[in-house]
Write a structure and sequence with these properties.
This protein is 43% helix and 19% strand. By secondary structure, it is α/β, with parallel strands linked by helices. β13, α10 and β14 form a beta-alpha-beta unit. It holds the Pfam family TGT.
């Protein structure tokens, strides 16, 4: 059940009640592709930094260790020791990212495994079965993510097929939720809007999938090569045509600035690999912009990454020590930077929720964006 608590302009403060707990939105979902956050971060750490939702990848878990293995071990929650909500993407993004290894047909997509080259077929029914085996809280519909530079004809044909696939996903999910040995008979299904950077195709698709009365709606196929301005324009055009009384999820986005802009356009679910990926390379987020902890200027800096931050890195360690760990290629340095970044994102989402409730979101957003630019100007 999705409840809107407050609106401040188009920004919405809401709550999604699931079988695995309550999700307060706007929310950032921490990305654990293979059922783990890269950077030696455990699910116990995720609770310590106030993570609400963990996201895992259907395709990757199907390839390794295998969704049947996960099901035999009690499902993804039990497998990774996480009792809060999990969203699994459908494998559809791999239709885009594994372009050299796949062939798209009406029935589904034929892959070559990126691990061992074996043949894999995944269509709407297979994606739903895999996600049912995983037992995630929220399953994403199987779709194709067309390139931002694909032709109009290709994108239209792709979107039409994605709509047909979505209807098959909905039918199969309804069936799987009634199977006797299903792990999560209350699994939710989110549909995905596609259409590259063609506003009219996007709008028509949003209208079509809205009629299917799904549990939530995502905007996919952005942050894949188009400019930020193009992404914001698509959101301006499309989000008003998705049901505002349902969760609105912008897939794979993004930077703190991207999130702030999208919240003001009515989006309330986000995920992105940036905080963990950047952290593994020593790049950390602060309220005054991004810092590169490998810089020589931090060699004798005994301050935390950011004053006042309550993350495990800032609470206990200095910039100088974290820089030393990174230079020495000690895993602890990477781990501390990832924990800091995830904590930063989770804390920012808490601030966003409070600002919406207090009807000062635009002021909060402006101040936050200005702060991000301060360090950039000093570089």
């Amino acid at each position: 059940m999705y409840q809107i608590i407050h609106r401040n302009g188009l920004a919405k403060r809401a709550r999604l009640i699931t079988v695995h707990g309550v999700i307060e939105t706007p929310v950032f979902m921490n990305v654990g592709t293979a059922a783990a956050i890269k950077g030696a971060v455990a699910t116990t750490d995720l609770k310590d930094i106030r993570t609400q939702v963990q996201l895992s990848n259907t395709y990757h878990l199907h390839v390794r260790p295998g969704d049947e293995v996960v099901k035999k071990l009690g499902g993804l929650h039990r497998f990774m020791n996480w009792d809060r909500p999990i969203l699994t993407d459908s494998g559809g993004f791999q239709v885009f990212s594994l372009g050299e290894l796949r062939k798209i047909k009406e029935e589904g997509v034929y892959f070559r495994s990126h691990v061992d080259g074996r043949k894999i077929f995944m269509g709407p029914e297979e994606s739903m079965q895999i996600q049912s085996n995983l037992g995630s809280t929220i399953a994403m519909a199987f779709d194709e993510c067309p390139s931002s530079v694909a032709s109009r004809e290709y994108v239209q044909n792709s979107v039409d097929r994605t709509t047909r696939w979505l209807k098959r996903c909905r039918t199969e999910m309804a069936r799987l939720n009634t199977v006797e040995d299903t792990i999560n008979p209350h699994q939710l299904l989110f549909g995905i809007n596609q259409g590259a950077i063609f506003p009219d195709i996007r709008i028509d698709h949003a209208k079509a999938i809205s009629e299917l009365e799904l549990d939530g709606y995502a905007v996919g196929g952005l942050a894949v090569g188009e400019s930020h301005a193009e992404m914001y324009h698509i959101l301006d055009e499309v989000v008003p045509h998705l049901p505002s009384e349902k969760p609105t999820y912008l897939m794979g986005v993004g930077t703190p600035a991207n999130i702030l802009e999208a919240v003001s356009r009515g989006v309330d679910f986000f995920d992105c690999v940036y905080p963990s990926r950047n952290g593994r390379h020593g790049h950390v987020y602060t309220n005054r912009g991004k810092l590169n902890m490998l810089n020589a200027k931090y060699e004798l800096d005994d301050a935390p990454i950011e004053e006042g931050c309550g993350c495990p890195a800032c609470t206990h360690y200095s910039r100088a020590y974290i820089r030393h760990l990174l230079k020495a290629k000690e895993m602890l340095g990477m781990r501390l930077c990832v924990l800091h970044n995830l904590y930063f994102y989770n804390t920012m989402m808490e601030e966003i929720r409070q600002a919406i409730e207090e009807e000062r979101y635009q002021e909060y957003k402006a101040a936050k964006l200005q702060g991000f630019q301060e360090n950039d100007k000093k570089q």
